[in-house]
Amino acid sequence: MASSPYFSLAVLFVAALGFGLAPLGLAWLWARVFSPQKPNAVKNAIYECGLESKGDAWLQFRSAYYLYGIIFLIFDVEAVFLLPFAVAFTGLGAAACAAMLIFVLLLVEGLAWAWAKGVLTWQ
Amino acid sequence: MAVDQNLKIELGKQGIFVTTIEELYNWGRRSSVWPMQFGLACCAIEMIATTMARYDLARFGAEVFRPSPRQADLMIVSGTVTKKMAPQVVRLYNQMAEPRYVIAMGACAISGGPFKQGYNVLKGIDRYIPVDVHIPGCPPRPEALIQAFMTLQKKIDGQHLTGDDRPRHLDPNAQGEFPVPEQGEHDLEPPSNPGVWPVPITIR
User: Fold this and answer.
1) In which residue ranges of chain A is pLDDT below 50?
2) Contacts of A36 in chain B (CB under 8 A)
3) Which of chain B's residues have a Cβ under 8 Å away from the Cβ of A39?
4) Span B45-80, pLDDT tens digits
5) Is A35 at the interface with chain B, CB within 8 A?
6) Full DSSP string of B79-129
7) How far is residue B184 from each of residues B26, B124, B178, B187, B190, measured CA to CA in Å?
8) How much is the average pLDDT of B124-140?
9) Which of B88, B172, B177 sits opposite A40 (nearest CB)?
């Protein structure tokens, strides 16, 4: 077995594993053997910045909110692109203005479609 | 059995390093005290300054301010503890892992300070939780906090693994839960924890 060319690799692998696991094992041993645990209700309570947590954290959000999130993106992305466009407006050629208008048109089209579908009215 | 100090120095001169498990253990503990990241008032500004480059609390191994009490060893009560805030502070102390230490920073945290006569200020956080180091000052300078920190390190260093002065986490009988006060009609209920702070007897 020792003559196998992979023997040294196996030894290194076991050493590496021990190097990683030994501190964990020692820490576990120390916690189990030497430090008595003193749990209580306050200590085990959910950490809520010192306040008592009220209710359940597993809340459900209305799916309608998801639609609003998507439509908000229209205005969000539009504003991000409109600002540099407006700043550089005087130095732009006709082709750049046309490209920007097409981009805005696409977004407006999406908004108009959402509006026509009645998504903007809160249900 | 601890090695005689003079023998240790003599051996050190010969290039032999002698130590005990207790010394190594306490060296590790005192060099990695992680304070909890929370501030209450103006003292917190000094506490923040202490951690920054100019005063550099990192030299003492305490630069990692933990945002959760589960990972913190040290609570620096920096600032005025109002009666509204006191239950939260005590609850956070309860939620810290053992061993836990407390530095009461500034006049307000140790006694109520300039607001002692106020109806809404706790007259010292040591009414509810055991404080290891008190720092006077309004606010104390970063040097004072560093000095308090070194005092705490000395205290940790002096704790033995066995016996009466062992750290709280090695003592099965040490008090684990410190009751969280509640808002009463006129004051916090109870107004103090008698196990931590003996109520002085008024002699008229």
Assistant:
1) none
2) 169-172
3) 176
4) 999 999 999 999 999 988 889 999 999 999 999 999
5) yes
6) S--BTTTHHHHHHHHHHSPSS-EEEEEHHHHHH-GGGTTSTTB-S-GGGTS
7) 42, 18, 18, 5, 8
8) 93
9) B177
Question: Three-state DSSP class for B46?
Answer: helix
Token duo for residue A12 = 């290194």
Contact assignment for A39 to B176 by CB distance below 8 Å: yes
> Is the separation of the CB atoms in B130 and B168 below 8 Å?
no
What is the per-residue pLDDT across B3-36, written as a single tens digit (0 to 9) for each?
A: 788 888 899 999 998 888 888 989 999 999 999 9
Which pLDDT value is given to residue A118? Answer: 84
Q: Which residues of B95-112 are buried (b: 16+ CB within 10 A; e: fewer)?
A: bbebbbbbbbbbbbbbbb
Q: Which two tokens stand for residue B110?
A: 């140790």
Residue B156 has which token pair?
């940790």
Q: What pTM was computed for the model?
A: 0.74
State whether A47 and B171 contact (CB < 8 Å): no
Q: Is A40 on the interface with B (CB under 8 A)?
A: yes
ipTM: 0.76
Vertex B47: Cα angle to B45 and B51 (nearest 5): 115
Q: Which residues from A are below 8 Å from B174, CB to CB?
A: 38
pLDDT tens, position by position, B155-189: 999 898 888 888 888 887 888 889 999 998 888 88
- Whether the CB-CB separation of B86 and B181 falls below 8 Å is answered with yes
Query: Measured between CA atoms, how close is B113 to chain A, in angstroms?
Result: 24
Tell me what pLDDT residue A19 has.
Answer: 96
